[in-house]
Amino acid sequence: MLDNDSIAFLQSGVSISLASCSPGGMPVMSRCLGCKIIDGGRQIAVFIKPSQAAELLDAIRCTGRVANVFSLPSTNRTLQLKGIDARVTPFDPADLAVVEAHVADFIAEVVPLGLPEAVVRTVFSLVPEDLATVIYTPSAAFSQTPGPKAGEALGAAR
């Protein structure tokens, strides 16, 4: 489902958001702090702050359903992945380097666009004890880059 270009994109300086919905259908969303590709893209791990995403994590625990959006601010290139088997796992400290690299890549992406670095660093400040990992198998992938091909299944939208 994910080619090498898409896998590289997911791990670049993109903005990452993760959404789900409660069993009653209420949508919930939070910002992620990085992405790790597992088994060549068969699974995706994203990192999130439980202190800012308690409702989202509860929804994932109840439904297993996620929509994960990756968007590069400088180009608006956007990919959306969906999964139906998401699970919340404890954060592995070995993944801290992935999180730190993502934050550095995101800062390098948005500071030239005019966002003050101090503000971005504040938004992305973290302590490893306040991180969790959400792992899922992508079941659908779409281009969501604004334009006539937005919404097309990945692979068909090139």
UniProtKB/TrEMBL annotation:
SUPFAM superfamilies: FMN-binding split barrel
Cited Gene3D superfamilies: Electron Transport, Fmn-binding Protein, Chain A
The name this protein goes by in its record: Pyridoxamine 5'-phosphate oxidase putative domain-containing protein
UniProt organism field: Oryzomicrobium terrae
